[in-house]
Each structure stands twice: as structure tokens, then as C-alpha cells.
């Protein structure tokens, strides 16, 4: 426990000071009562000689009072210190007994009052962002794509006729406050030793699907799974309809299915969802309209981000929302989907599909470009955030948000910090050409 832990109980917003003050008043009143009783005993009873020394009557009364007050304060501090430690030991899991309960109380109180953030996307990009954002607010809503038709999610979708659970599972794992072992179990994927029927499936996908069967709906399954794993925030599918992604390429080819797009070897000219009039999940629409901050991405542009926005209700709510809006560009191109794309090209695809020149307020791109080429096996290059490109009415924000070990991914904590900085500085007119490039 840190030395200043007791002073943290006095921080603004903990709703603790009022009760500490009331406790102090009660102790003071009790002290006055004892003082009256002791004075009555003192004037009506003759004490033996040793009491003269025990009560320190050989020193001035003001000094005696000071000594008693100092001793009482020392006992109060010591008891508060020990109470803090015992509460932490009793309340917190065994793996976190060294944590300070006042820190947790303060964090939870401040997170509860944090901005209402809606993150739109899918895949590992969205879950990576959520891990960082949950340190700033508990008012988080993740809107995830339901167009996935590959891997374990695709098999479950075809066999069980439910929306694909993979991206939902990743978001639940990212926002869960449960024991790390439980989260690891939720992400566990069976290998070929489990047999052909089970190989490739993740435990979390099967768990969510089973929960949907038990509760009767995928919405309830997500809510109950989130409750079991103590998820901070909400995870909502963009639609509950059976949505499939379609794409048209420059040579006129049309490909159906999200998993088939990257295999085409080039970026599509246009993508859309089938059915085009898929109904948006009502809570997702309400969250967008009520948000303080909307974050789009990161994630695969055409297969994770755009499928959400192409649901008419989601795209419409995004345009109507008064929230501050940030688009996060990928840090590296994705082979067969965004080859050769810059940050401006990523954002241009969003503007083109939403038929709007002002989708977001800020385009966030990576500023930390590697000195050496990326691993050729990745078939990827860094995404450039050129300041002289066309960003419509949005402004470009450059920040160091790349993962040092995996340069094709974002650093979740750095990314969340950059997003929150953009939000809190939204009304400032920062004249810093190295960080901002104003457009419009």
C-alpha cells in the first residue's frame, strides 16, 4: 500500500468525505460526553496519588490536550491504514491482494463519470482499442460486425443459424474484469486433437452459442455472458439480421462473403451488405445518438469497419449524432484489401460509401514509421498519414500508436490515450503543424 493511500480517501468524487466527516462529528460528540462524565467523577471522587502522574497533571492543561489529540490522531491513522489493507484483502481476489482498495474505488468512481464512448469495428483492432479505453470510462459500447462468415464463427453461423459470435467474443474478453484465467479460457481454441467437429472452434464461441440456446436469443446471451465475466461496458451487434457482405471489383467481378474478399488480391471498388435494408439493433442506434465520443476502427476496412456502417440505421445514426467522431486508420496495409492505401485512402473509402464529406471530426494516424521495411511475410507496408492529402472537413492527427513488437497492430494503451486526448482537446485550436493538419 502506498504511503499516500489515506489521503486518497479525500479525493473529489469518491462520495467518502461526507461519511468521514459524519464519523468525525460522532466521535467528537462522544468525546464531549465522556468529558462531562470524567469531569463529574473528577470533582466528586478523591483519586489516589498515582492517578496524579497517570493523568499527567504535572504538566499544563494545554499541553496535555495536545498530547491526547496527537495520540488519538496517530491511532486513527494507524487504524485507517490497517482497515484499508484488511478490506483489500477481504474484497479483492487473491491474485490482487496487494492492490489498494482506495485506488480501485477512485478508479471506478471516475470511470463511472467518464464520457459515453461508442466504438465501431470488429476483429482484433476493436478489442485492442477497448482494452485501452476501459481504463478511462465504464460508459463503453462496442458495436461489432455480424458479417463474418469464416473460421469458427462462420461454421457456427451456418450450423446453428445465429449471428457470428467471434468478434463479440473478442470484445467480451477485452472488457472482462474476471480472473485472467477465465478470460484465457474464453479465448481458448480447440486443435485437431479435439476431432474434426471441434477443431478450430474457440471455447468462447461455443459458450456464447450455448447461452443463446439456453436464454432464447443472442442479445440475452451476450448480456448474460457479459454479466458472468464482469464486463465493463456493453457489446452490441450492429444488426440481428443474417447479414452477408458483397463486393465489386474494378474488372466487374462480384464476390459474396466476407471471407472471400481478401482472396481476391486487390481492394474492392464497392462493398455492400445483403440484405441492403438490414435492421439496425435498436440499442446500438440509441447508443450512437446518446454518445459523447464515437470511435470508428481500427480494423479491416472493408470486412470489419464498413459492414457496420452499411447497416442503414447505424450509418444514419452516425451522421445524426452530435458526438465528437474519430476515425482510426490502420497502421499497416492489409494484403488483398487495402494494398497501397494511405490514411487518406482509408478515410476516403468511408466517405465514399457513406456518401458524406464529413463523416468524422478527426482522422487519427500513426506517426512512428519504421526505419526498416516490414517483414515480407506480412505482405504489408506502413500506412502513411500524409498531411497534404484530402481529408474532407476532418483534421489529421498524428500520434505514436503502433505496437513496437507487432508493427502491423496498434498499441492499445497508446491508442486509447491518443483518442482521449483528441476528445478532451476537441474544442481547442491547437496550432501545431507537426501534430495537426487542418482541412476544410
What does this structure look like?
The protein folds into two domains: 5-109, no CATH class; 115-437, CofD-like domains (Rossmann fold). 44% of the residues lie in helices and 11% in strands. The protein has helices at 5-8, 17-44, 49-54, 61-91, 101-112, 123-133, 151-160, 166-175, 180-186, 203-215, 218-228, 282-290, 301-309, 312-320, 343-354, 412-424, and strands at residues 117-121, 140-144, 234-237, 244-248, 254-256, 270-274, 293-296, 324-328, 362-366, 395-399, 436-437. An eight-stranded mixed beta sheet has the order 3-2-1-7-8-9-10-11, with helices on both faces. A hairpin with a 5-residue loop joins β4 and β5 (254-256). α6 packs across α16. It is elongated and about 110 Å long. The model is unreliable at 429-440 (pLDDT under 50).
